[in-house]
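TICKET: design request
STATUS: open
ATTACHED STRUCTURE:
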């Protein structure tokens, strides 16, 4: 997974898989979902990120313990 914040365009992009995008859908205004040719979500783009996300330039990453 790759996360990119572009301060010039104020766009936050989360890439789940490095593959070709076959289809894009603006699910909610300013939130674009990209899918591969099998319908799997491969990336998420948030426009006007500084208005929608607290501190888009700061990323926290957490791995939850496995249930078992």
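STATUS: resolved
RESOLUTION: sequence designed for all positions
ATTACHED SEQUENCE:
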């Amino acid at each position: 997974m790759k996360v990119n914040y572009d301060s010039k365009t104020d766009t936050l992009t989360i890439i789940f898989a490095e593959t070709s995008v076959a289809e894009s859908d603006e699910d909610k205004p300013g939130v674009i979902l990209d899918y591969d040719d099998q319908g799997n979500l491969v990336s998420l783009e948030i426009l006007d990120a500084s208005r929608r996300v607290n501190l888009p330039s700061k990323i926290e990453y957490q791995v939850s313990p496995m249930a078992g």
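CLOSING REMARK: The chain has one domain: 2-52. The mean pLDDT is 90.
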